[in-house]
Amino acid sequence: METKAGDLTMEQIRNAGLDALLKTLGIVGTIRFLQYAEKGQGDYTKDRHTWLGDPDLDQLANEIEKMRN
């Protein structure tokens, strides 16, 4: 019977995830993945508004069209 994630503690989920990474990637790959996936700092949503501004729908559609061409 498969265990559902809702039945596990956060520690058990973390351990199961680490076990899966180790099994699939080995120790070096797991370490590399953990370094890549490390939590960052700051507020991505607030920063995103600084980078992207507040484009309207027409501006977004124009940007999409530029990418397609």
How would you portray this structure in words?
It is a single chain. The chain has one domain. Helix content is 70%, strand content 0%. It contains three helices and no strands. It has helices at residues 10-36, 44-52, 57-68.
Shape: elongated
Q: Helical region count? A: 3
Gyration radius (Cα, Å) is 20 Å
H-E string? HHH
Can you describe this structure in just a few lines?
By secondary structure, this protein is mainly alpha-helical. It has one domain (5-68). It has helices at residues 10-36, 44-52, 57-68.
Write the layout of secondary structure elements.
Elements: H1 10-36, H2 44-52, H3 57-68
Entry keywords:
69 residues, mainly alpha, 3 helices, 70% helix, 0% strand, elongated
